[in-house]
Write a structure and sequence with these properties.
This protein folds into two domains: about 100 residues, Winged helix-like DNA-binding domain superfamily/Winged helix DNA-binding domain (Arc Repressor Mutant, subunit A); about 40 residues. It is built from eight helices and two strands; from the N terminus they run ααααββαααα. It is mainly alpha-helical and about 200 residues long.
Length: about 200
């Protein structure tokens, strides 16, 4: 699944239907998720609910009352094309929809400052025990995503050197993470033993 930057969700320029004052955040998230799913091929309503439920391990199963209005909204804006197929109403992404996804990817390719800010605010609301669980679960999810995506990336990449650089860069980031954890654990043990 995708990570969704907060400014993508609330930007009225990107998705005009989203109005934070009217509590329509879910619409913005739903629009972005549906468009992203449609880049992989034709989609239909129930499939979207099932995929989101599967990806969130059952934590979120959007209702038909969320999915179908979002599909219609995207279709009315020319981002999706509606058609009949396999006895269902199907949707496929249009050139306009692909163009919007590309704009979003270009704008948000790197971790945006808004995301960092919102992440910090979110973490500040948590108690230390909650932060520990959240960080550990996030690491597990990153690992699962990495394992699921590496083979697909390797098979789809044209420039093998670029993939090799990506792998080496990721290893360096993991080494930095391990150093931070080892240093913290060492300091914690010294404090625990009264050495500090």
């Amino acid at each position: 699944m995708c990570y969704i930057d907060i400014d993508i969700v609330i930007s009225n320029k990107v998705i005009p239907l989203v109005d934070p004052e009217k509590r329509s955040w879910n619409k913005g998230i739903m629009f972005f998720i549906i468009l992203t799913m449609a880049t992989k091929g034709p989609i239909y309503g129930n499939q979207i609910s099932n995929m989101i439920s599967e990806e969130t391990r059952g934590a979120w199963r959007p209702s038909a009352g969320s999915v179908y209005p979002a599909l219609e909204g995207l279709s009315s804006r020319g981002l999706l094309e509606r058609y009949e197929g396999d006895g269902k109403v199907m949707y496929r992404i249009t050139e306009k929809g692909l163009s919007l996804i590309e704009k979003i990817k270009k704008k948000h390719f790197e971790f945006s400052p808004i995301s960092r800010f919102m992440g910090r605010i979110w973490m500040e609301t948590m108690m230390p025990q909650e932060r520990m669980r959240f960080i550990l679960n996030s690491a597990k999810q990153v690992n699962e995503s990495l394992a699921e995506n590496l083979k697909e990336i390797r098979e789809g990449i044209v420039n093998k050197r670029e993939y090799e650089i990506f792998l080496a860069s990721y290893e360096l980031e993991l080494e930095r993470t391990m150093k931070i954890l080892k240093d913290e654990r060492k300091e914690f043990l010294m404090i625990k033993e009264g050495a500090i």
